[in-house]
């Protein structure tokens, strides 16, 4: 009976069950999630710095336009055109620049030019004022 009891005990032992292991997928999922989180954070930080840099550049261009001295009209017309073109980023400034640019052209390509006329000066001041309000 002892032997029979022993074989019954052995028959009652069930085979090992396979336990599903998802730790491998969880591990790579966490790595992927962390990577996406890191990349998105870096993207927004870089975007924030880029936008601030752009605003700072526009402020610098505006300050350069305000400092233009119209004593040397030819040189000043080149500077005004350069900075106004850089600042013409929205629709309103582009429209004013499209009117201002032909007015400045008459002072750029001649050997000797006369002083800036009032209409051009007023259009330039309007452009500076509009750019100052929108920055």
TrEMBL record:
The keyword Membrane applies. Keywords: Membrane, Transmembrane, Transmembrane helix. The chain crosses the membrane at residues 25-46. This is DUF4381 domain-containing protein. It comes from uncultured Sulfurovum sp.
């Amino acid at each position: 009976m002892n032997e029979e009891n022993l074989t019954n005990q052995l028959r009652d032992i069930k085979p090992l069950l396979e336990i599903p292991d998802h730790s491998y997928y969880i591990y790579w999922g966490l790595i992927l999630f962390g990577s996406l989180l890191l990349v998105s954070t870096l993207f927004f930080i870089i975007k924030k710095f880029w936008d601030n840099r752009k605003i700072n550049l526009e402020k610098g261009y505006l300050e350069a336009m305000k400092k233009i001295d119209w004593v040397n009209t030819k040189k000043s017309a080149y500077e005004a055109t350069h900075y106004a073109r850089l600042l013409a980023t929205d629709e309103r400034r582009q429209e004013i620049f499209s009117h201002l640019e032909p007015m400045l052209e008459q002072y750029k390509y001649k050997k000797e030019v006369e002083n800036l006329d009032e209409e051009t000066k007023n259009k330039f001041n309007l452009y500076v004022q509009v750019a100052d309000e929108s920055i």
